[in-house]
Design a protein that fits this description.
single chain, alpha+beta, 8-stranded mixed β-sheet, Aminopeptidase
């Protein structure tokens, strides 16, 4: 997938993204909004390991968000299996200096549309931490509907948090 949008480009990851990836991912505020599989601190070695893995997998569902030629974030879907085979979850992150500009709303909307058009999906969902209202707004602006609060659902940075469940259906 290669989507050229108004505010960014969504494209496959490349090995030469490592320096920019490490720069934008090495931010505690970014880490506080994502799952713990996303390391912190985020080193250049973490970037190289991630890129080598994703490129070797030839992932058709995990993408770079590029602005002005630099890798500044990531977005991807995780396809469901078995009885969830027509569903997916979406996840995303963006370097802090790009927050508040509508970039992620545009990216989530475009990737969701692309996935509905190119995969046999009926539903794409996302869970955001309840202490991250900006991410919830991204989903709402991208056409996702709030489905519920999952009480005491995650532990992040030694804090027990609720998650907010959103979904968009075809």
């Amino acid at each position: 997938m290669h989507l050229v949008l108004k505010s960014c480009t969504i494209r496959p990851w490349r090995l030469d993204d490592a320096e920019s990836l490490a720069k934008h991912a090495h931010n505690r505020k970014v880490w506080l909004a994502v799952r713990d599989l996303f390391p912190h601190p985020y080193t250049i070695d973490d970037a190289h390991e991630f890129l080598q893995k994703k490129i070797a997998e030839q992932s058709a569902t995990i993408f770079c968000i590029e602005i002005a030629g630099a890798a500044v974030g990531g977005i991807g879907i995780h396809l469901g299996q078995d009885v969830h085979r027509q569903t997916a979850t979406v996840g995303y992150w963006l370097g802090e200096q790009f927050w508040g500009r509508g970039i992620m709303t545009e990216a989530v909307t475009a990737v969701t549309d692309f996935c509905f058009d190119n995969f046999p999906l009926r539903r794409i969902s996302a869970e955001v931490f309840a202490n991250n209202p900006a991410s919830a707004r991204v989903l709402e602006k991208a056409g996702f509907v709030f489905e519920g609060r999952l009480k005491n659902n995650v532990i992040k940075d030694r804090m027990l948090l609720d998650s907010l469940l959103y979904a968009r259906t075809k």
